[in-house]
């Protein structure tokens, strides 16, 4: 059963994530499996060394030079569907913009450890992270293409700072490592077709295994500073925009790029 708008907003405000089982229908699931498999094979050919060393994800799936017109049309139809809009609008009520797509898979080395992180730690110092926590909304919309262990999250950490133990683990300091277990961690396993929405700034780690294959679509607030690095080649053209149910986030990103100096 699809979640109501108020339930989506309430779940997010309380925990920083929203789980919607069986979001994709079977046809959409099979389409995305075929599209992402084709993209992944090409990506592996071009990034074999990176994959063998440490890669766990790729990005820019909808780039016009990396995906056929047919596959782009099909993917935008799914990620720009009315059903997707029903999951985006309650969390970005003042308008949403499309940032990127990412494909997550298991590391080549089965001994490679996962790691706790906030996406923001790659952009800011811990002091800056703490100061801006909760002021920016960037959301991952993770579509599981096969059954997988899922994600482990620290509920509420989208607007709550790390405990001393959590900070030590996340930053791998004071004798702790970023893969160490944390008491507040909540695992969310995913079945094929499930949707998990989570805040990019919350503490989380991917759970490897079972040949995970998951498509993340990133949406954010319509803000110039968040959208200045969007790749225009990953956005749909006018024809696709005119044919999908929910063109607004893609149009917002295009408009933001036009205004970038």
From TrEMBL:
Keywords: Dioxygenase, Oxidoreductase
Taxonomy, superkingdom: Bacteria
Alphabetized Pfam families for the sequence: PhyH
Gene Ontology MF: a single term: 2-oxoglutarate-dependent dioxygenase activity
Name the UniProt record assigns to this protein: Phytanoyl-CoA dioxygenase
Species this chain originates from: Alteromonas alba
């Amino acid at each position: 059963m699809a979640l109501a708008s108020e339930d989506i907003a309430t779940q997010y405000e309380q925990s920083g994530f929203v789980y919607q089982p069986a979001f994709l229908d079977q046809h959409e699931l099979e389409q995305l499996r075929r599209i992402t498999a084709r993209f992944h094979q090409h990506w592996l050919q071009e990034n074999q060394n990176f994959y063998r060393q440490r890669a766990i994800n790729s990005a820019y799936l909808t780039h016009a030079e990396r995906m056929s017109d047919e596959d782009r049309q099909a993917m935008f139809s799914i990620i720009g569907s009315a059903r997707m809009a029903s999951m985006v609008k309650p969390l970005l009520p003042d308008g949403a913009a499309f940032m990127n797509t990412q494909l997550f898979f298991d590391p080549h080395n089965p001994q490679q450890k996962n790691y706790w992180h906030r996406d923001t730690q790659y952009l800011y110092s811990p002091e800056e992270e703490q100061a801006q926590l909760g002021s920016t909304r960037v959301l991952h919309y993770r579509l599981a293409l096969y059954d997988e262990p899922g994600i482990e999250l620290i509920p509420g950490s989208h607007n709550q700072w790390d405990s001393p133990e959590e900070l030590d683990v996340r930053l791998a300091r004071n004798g702790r490592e970023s893969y160490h277990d944390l008491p507040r961690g909540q695992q969310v396993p995913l079945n094929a077709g499930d949707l998990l929405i989570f805040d990019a700034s919350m503490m989380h780690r991917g759970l490897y295994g079972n040949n995970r294959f998951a498509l993340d679509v990133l949406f954010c607030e319509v803000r110039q500073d968040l959208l200045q690095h969007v790749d225009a080649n990953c956005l749909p053209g006018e024809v696709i925009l005119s044919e999908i149910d929910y063109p607004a986030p893609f149009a917002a990103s295009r408009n933001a790029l036009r205004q970038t100096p």
